[in-house]
Amino acid sequence: MTAPVLPPQVTPQRRFLLALAAVTALVAVWIVAPLAQYVLVAVLLAYVLQPVQRRLAPRVGARVSAVVVILVSVGAIVAPVAVVLAVAVRAIDQVRGALVGDGVDFGALEELAAAGGVDLRGELTAVTRRVFDSGFGTMLELFGGVSDALIGLTVLLFVVYYLLVDGQTLVAWVERATPLESTTSRRLRRDLDRITWGVVVGNVAIAVVQGVLTGLVFALVGVSNVVFWTVVTTLLSLLPLIGASIVWIPMAVFLFLSGRPVDAAVVFVLGAGVISLSDNYLRPIVTGHEAHVSPGLMVVGIFGGVLAFGFVGLFVGPIVLAFAKTLVDTLVDEDRHPAEA
Q: What parts of the sequence cross the membrane (predicted)?
């Protein structure tokens, strides 16, 4: 019979080290908190890019492969954003021309709004005045926002680089520092990897599918700037319950008011029956199957994560909630099978 393992004796030195560690941890959290969103994005990017960097590292080295992967990723992000911004400027100009020209019957639209008790012209004037009044304040805050963003992006790039280069060393250190048995540690690591992969890749894949479907429908009815609307829909489709409908419903209304009722009907029918309906079928199949996350937990995690962490909360929220469920399952299994723990 083996003797029970006694806890370490609480000596004055140990009490001092514990207190010092607690104070240091609080200060560390206070330092990292303003950059939490950038650090979380860096962790997710490093997770996604690690398989590519790992395959490239034996040929050119870990550090060079990390730099190459980061540069290619930045180019893959910056180039489409530049194209989308250029197309967005043209799209806004076209919408403005349609409103002031003959593309939309503004008088009929104003009568329709008046029937609902809305002074459309007065509301537009008030919105324009508010935008003009806030313009100077926005310009004054711009430089501060830009400087904060540059600091955050710098931190993001450095964190991604060092996670790609030394990520395995960090994981090994965490495993040594935690008092978990090797079987439990491997299980938690495997579950966290499965959850992260399912949430990140699943959500992105679903958003891309909805964006492409929206682009195809818009191309079918002759809507211009299809690439722009495809990218916008892809980004908005990351949000369930909102998703692609916030794009195709206004487009259907715009086509109807522009004297194209048949095209408007096509967009509405395909949008409701194909684009938005695909989210209900694909999300449980892709994300739920890979990450074992229920749709209800996914919705709570996404919107709660957005409120807590901003855009990155779209991914962090579901991952945290799903991993919390995994931790509870692990504790329950240990209580039921203490000999195997």
A: 16-49, 61-89, 149-174, 195-221, 227-257, 264-282, 302-324
